[in-house]
Amino acid sequence: MEQYFSATQKMEQEVMFPSLLRGVFPQEGAAPAAESRTDLYERYQLLKAIKPMVEKGLASVGDQSPSGAHTDMDTSLDSNEAEGAQLEERLSHHLTGLQQVLTHLTRDTNALTRRYSQILEQINLSEGQPSW
Known about the structure:
This protein is mainly α. Helix content is 67%, strand content 0%. It has helices at residues 2-14, 40-63, 77-128. Helix 1 (2-14) runs parallel beside helix 3 (77-128) and helix 2 runs antiparallel to helix 3. The chain starts with a helix and ends with a helix.
């Protein structure tokens, strides 16, 4: 989680001119995949839009009380244990999915930031050469 927030913060600090990412695809020199024709500018916009949703979602998780908090006293211990095991399994499944999504987003964010730095280096190199 911290890696994701760190990567997005670094991206926001480094990418000063997002328009430089227009028409630049994730893998330089390779044509974009047929199913994924989004350039880095679109990915940048998406990553920026996702960050507040992740932050808000994490904040709301802390505010919610468990839905099964009010159970009847007559409920047997076995059914509570079975329900608890089922809830643990569901939570584990969702946390695994969340971890995978955050890992993917972190990787995309880091790749976008690296590519932006490469673009700036190319611009700086071309400005240093005399144009005859």
